[in-house]
Amino acid sequence: MSDLRTEADPRRWKALIFIALAQLMVVLDATIVNIALPSAQADLGISDGNRQWVITAYALAFGGLLLFGGRISDLWGRKRAFVTGLIGFAAASALGGAAVNTAMLLGARALQGVFGALLAPAALSLLAVLFTEAKERAKAFGVFGAIAGAGGGVGLILGGLFTEYLNWRWTFFVNIPFAVVAAAGAISVIREPAEGRNPSKLDIPGVILATLGLVSLVYGFTRAESDGWSAGVTIGLFVAAAVLLGAFLLVERSVKAPLMPLRVLTDRNRGGVYISLGLAAIAMFGLFLFLTYYLQVVRGYSPVKTGLSFLPMIAMMITGSTQIGTRLMTRVPARWLMAPGFLLAAAGMVLLTQIDLDTSYAAVILPGLMMMGLGMGTAFMPAMSLATHGVQPRDAGVASAMVNTSQQVGGAIGTALLNTIAASATTDYFKSHMAGATNPKLLTFQSMVHGYSTAVWWAVGILSLSALVALVFVNANPGGGPAASSADGETAEDAIPVMAH
Q1: By the number of CB atoms within 10 A of the CB, which of 11, 39, 164, 365 ranks highest?
Q2: What is the pLDDT of residues 473-492, one digit of tens each?
């Protein structure tokens, strides 16, 4: 592939701006709607039973279709998939902002998930083919990793500002300028070589099995949160997910052009990254939820003040990713950034287990958030880079999709699992202290805080496991040194072509 290794595209840094803008839009959308949900529910008359579907409709479509979106990206070309995803996401956001009833809002959220599943893997795989020189790749993925890590916190801030000072509809409308600018920029500056495409026929059985399997898995955790882990529907969904995903793996071994080539999954480094990122997402998504409720319900913070409370964490994420991860990625193996990063974030979570009814933000919550941000930023950057390291150009889309899939499924698991743990601990604490209670309202708050603290301890354990997985399985250095071999025998240098004029 030496004929492809020509001079790098001079517009690649401009392209990074628009790719990062699109990534920010997708990531912040996962949290921006959460804070606005109570206002939207009251305005549209959404029932309590249907309220969760505003979040679930997006998660099901996004998580279920990511592998399909990654394969379409390889088939169509990343630029076309990227621009199509942006335009579709903007249209779905406009529909959501203009919603006049429950059905219209839920439909818009599902459409956002569909186009997000096309956009997200296209964005990451574009980076993989645009930046191949070690130091440039480190800087590019540093920016991307910082945005991926901090976008959720930005969503909380914007959600609070829009809900308090404008209207919940702006949590949807804000996506439109993001998408328009990113699409216009992508059309004008991104150039992608046709050699990177995968023209093989689409694996229809694989698409059906993977989509239904992932939807069953994500929906199973959603039902576990509302109905309980032992409910018949919950168990049935988990059994269905196991059968469908097992059948998917069997099909992928036998078809000529698989949706998910097993060589992408069986590479020890990529497999380690997918598992560690999924575990980290379990811990992070659950913590965001508990801390938001703690600050608003127990401490009485406004939506804006709650969002601003996360700002130091976002600043440290950006610092960890762009200043620590980027500078060290070309000098030390990825495992020595990922494992210590996740452990530092876990130590920050240990501080947050100490919360009480009158915990000082400056003394406990602030340092905990800053440690988490610094650790996650440092770990995310090499993980994002390594997820596409050494992969063949024709597989870049599905390899990128697996990063988003692991985080999306991890987020769904984290929300359901840790919420269930917190609810159970809250109930047990309330029952055991009810007899001697003189102030029922105070006991309610104390029970809630105990539940949050218990769940965060679980998150500490899960994040520590993520660090262990990174330490054991990840042995490549995506930033420099000897190129690690990919699963099918190519070095990273052979596998990813440099962009030509």
Answers
A1: 365
A2: 888 765 544 333 343 444 33
